[in-house]
Amino acid sequence: MINIMLNGRIISQVTPEEGAAIAQKLRERRRKGKLDSQVTIAFIPARDELRIDSSAGRLLRPLIVIEKGKVLLQDADLVALKEGKLTWSKLIKQGKVEYLDGEEEEDALIALTEKDITSEHTHMEIHPIILLGVPGSLIPFANYSRGDRVNYGTSKGVKQGLGIYSLNYPLRFDTFTNILYAPQNPLVKTKMHDVLGFSHHPAGQNFVVAMLPWEGYNMEDAVIMNKGSLQRAIARSTYFRPYTVPENRYPGGQEDRIGVPEKDVSGYSAEEDYQNLDEDGMVFPESWMDGGDVLVGKTSPPRFLGSMSTFRMGVESRRDTSSRVRHDEHGRVDSVVVTENVEGRKLIRVRMREDRRTETGDKFSSRHGQKGVVGLILPPEDMPFTEGGVIPDMITNPHGIPSRMTFNQLIDFLAGKAAAVSGDFVDGTPFEGDPIVKTKKLLTARGFKSSGNEVMYNGISGEKMEVEIFSGVIYYHKVRHMVANKIHVRARGPVQMLTRQPTEGRSKLGGLRMGEMEKDCLVSHGASLLLDERFSSDRTRVPVCTNCGIVAVYNYVKDKAFCPLCSGEAVEWVEMSYAFHIMLQELITMGIYPKMVLKDKGW
Fold first, then answer.
1. In whole angstroms, what is the distance from residue 118 CA to residue 327 CA?
2. What 3-state DSSP class applies to 469?
3. Is the dihedral of CA 378, 380, 382, 386 positive or negative?
4. pLDDT for 521-564, tens place per residue?
5. Pick from 500, 479, 503, 499: which is nearest to 490 by CA?
6. What pLDDT was estimated at residue 600?
């Protein structure tokens, strides 16, 4: 029997023949507009189910209806659509196009193109490129690549590639923003670039790229960049970071005050920190700021009332709560805006601007999921060059191609090279586009080899390379993951109050955590002194009673230590980790007696 289910609940049971007939009748009513176009009718005999679903949250996609091997959408309909005589909603009401979700697709046979249609097909794709979705349709020749690589390409390119995301970015205060200098349209693009308007705000640049291993500096997907290209502002970007400073009001009528703090406020730092502030306490636009410099001066009332220091001879006690530049950032003040928050209180927004030039460790990615960081920046005179004197902007490693099987990247190389020498864009629309044969003919006509290989010379030694190097022009994205945002190092710095160990996190000037596996690396190398140093970040000296074996009490005034159990003064000072000292104290609070047995080191 077939279970008829409405929004996941069984409402009836019928025979398989009746189930097929009911599904057919419901679909006919849907195509005639008597049933909502977004209702799913999925007849799945393998699961003994006829699923009728109208719930929210289902993903639907449009397909052209085929009946008895004939496409219902005719050329006349397309002309009427173009002239505005016919609308999309009318096409759906006429039953020529309908929406299917994942469940109903199980009960449909969908043809890719019109030439694939047989008598068994029920639907046809509007265009094969729609299979890939919006981001995937921007990848040229995606039908020659693996599906996972197409996904990587969409992630690194459309989502993380730098460009101009909005024309009104100078007026916006987003959390953080990266704007690429001089973004370019790709020489090889798909039809969806123009349809979606990506030609108006591209997110990458066309690079001349050679594929060869180079002295080990482009191992593991790393890339080598030409310093000359970087100096000509290729892959250069601007980083914007906003700071928000509210003037809050507190219970009891107390409130923050924005202005240059007086010298007698609690927490007042060096006078130089406030040198960029105007009389109103706000920084001058275009001021150069380093980490820790004050952007907006602000004083606040004390956190806790009641201590005697609050009532010092009638003087109001305030503390410095000025907004400062993050310790790991620097740059110029781009703009200062004074506005109001929801409560009508003053709100100041300051945006910092930093010029970002490509450095070792910055990330790049092609549109085909081949991502890598900069391993070396070479002077142009040391870069390999072709017979014609062309120096590549980037050197990538050919070993990244066989395992990833991104064959479309190789086609993109050739097509980009053909576009560059012919002065025209190449159509790389998946399942369509210009064939490789045409690309090879273009290259041959301009005096290049159809394979894309070129004779190259070593820029350092001047010797001719023994093999020809595959090179071409390809579109690369500068990805937002930059070293300047991630570099994390510290020598001395703040520690936690409880454990006296270094704070955690880059924003808190924290240390890098050393876990079990890192410890094992040092042990295997025999680096005992380094191991001792790494694990002594909370080293402390603790008095221990030689009789009772517990932590003694130290009187700082009398400079004496005594045991809290036996009151004896036979105490030895022991070096240990402060975290271990805390554990001993916590064991005592639980009624456990942690006795330490002391012995001489025998030195």
1. 67
2. strand
3. positive
4. 999 999 989 888 888 888 999 999 999 999 999 999 999 999 98
5. 503
6. 82
**pLDDT value of residue 238:** 95
Please give the Cα distance from 126 to 100 (Å, whole number): 13
Q: Are 567 and 536 in contact (CB under 8 A)?
A: no
Which phi and psi angles does 185 have, rounded to 5°?
A: -75, 140
Contacts of 152 (CB under 8 A, 6+ apart): 369, 371
Mean pLDDT of the region 453-475: 94
Q: Which of 62, 96, 66 is nearest to 78 (CA)?
A: 96
Tens of pLDDT along 303-355? 765 545 445 544 568 899 999 999 888 999 999 999 998 888 899 999 999 99
Q: For residues 15 and 184, what is the distance between their CA atoms, to the nearest angstrom? A: 61
Sign of CA dihedral 421, 422, 425, 431: negative
Output the CA–CA distances (angstroms, integers) from residue 268 to 113, 249, 413, in the order listed: 73, 21, 59
Instruction: Please tell me the least confidently modeled range out of 116-125, 208-217, 265-274.
Output: 265-274
* Domains of the chain, start order: 2-126 (no CATH), 142-236+360-478 (2.40.270.10), 240-304+311-356 (2.40.50.150), 488-534 (3.90.1800.10), 539-589 (3.90.1800.10)
Predicted confidence at residue 603, as pLDDT, reads 57
Query: Is pLDDT of 366 > 50?
Result: yes
Q: What is the pLDDT of residue 33?
A: 85
The pTM (predicted TM-score) of the whole model is: 0.82
- Residues 588 and 44: their CA atoms lie apart, in Å, by 66
| Residue spans of beta strands (DSSP E) within 422-526 | 426-427, 453-454, 456-457, 469-478
How far is residue 9's CA from residue 308's CA, in Å, rounded to a whole number? 70
**What does the pLDDT look like over 222-234, one tens digit per residue?**
999 999 999 999 9
Residues catalogued as catalytic? 221
121 contacts: CB under 8 Å, gap ≥ 6: 66, 69, 109, 110, 111
Radius of gyration of the chain (CA): 35
Cα dihedral 484, 487, 488, 491 in deg (nearest 10):
-90
The DSSP H or E segment spanning 517 is helix 516-525
CA angle 90, 96, 98 (to 5 degrees): 85
